[in-house]
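Predict the structure of Arm DNA-binding domain-containing protein.
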Amino acid sequence: MPPDTCRYPQHGAQGIRARYATKRTKDYELFDGEGLYLLIRPNGSKLWGFKYRFDGKEKLLSLGRYPELSLAEARLRRAEFKVAQAKGIDPGAKEVVAPVMTFEEAGRALECHVGHTVHASARGLALTLDKRACER
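Done. Here is the predicted structure for Arm DNA-binding domain-containing protein.
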């Protein structure tokens, strides 16, 4: 059959195996290679995963559900993760976002907006009206 009339040109044998994978009594995995696998759950759901090692530890990443995430897209994500690993970056590490404002700045903005000052004491919190809150 010529390639342009092939029904699954981008999938190959792995795509067909993923499409027709049946549920079993236990979880099982279909491996695509280089850490990419499809996890088939007993309830029939199919989830893409990426297994890799970083700093001597084995780690797992969830990529998404099949068929919402196709085999071709999962392979692209695997390639992106491999590039990140080659640069020494952990693909599964969460980016730390710096706070937009400090706690003190947030408190001053709240005082300005509400017009009250919050005082902490041994007996609890006390609110007082402070017209000068925005002048600080």
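The first strand starts at residue 28 and ends at 33.
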